[in-house]
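Aim 2 progress update. The chain analyzed this quarter is reproduced below.
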Amino acid sequence: MVIIALIPLLILVPFTIIDSLRSPHLSVTQKFAWIVFIIIAPYLGAIVYLLWGRRQKMV
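Predicted structure tokens:
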């Protein structure tokens, strides 16, 4: 049961951190804020970044 919860965490969190760092549309302050949010609340932060943070790139 624990493994099922850890697998998405080990894949999703690094992906969202790397994606936010590579984003040319986010300022340094925004990148820092996203990374802090993802680290403090891993599941929530990663999901919110994927749903809302990546949209910032498209605008």
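The mean pLDDT is 90. The chain has four helices and no strands. These observations will guide the mutagenesis experiments scheduled for the next reporting period.
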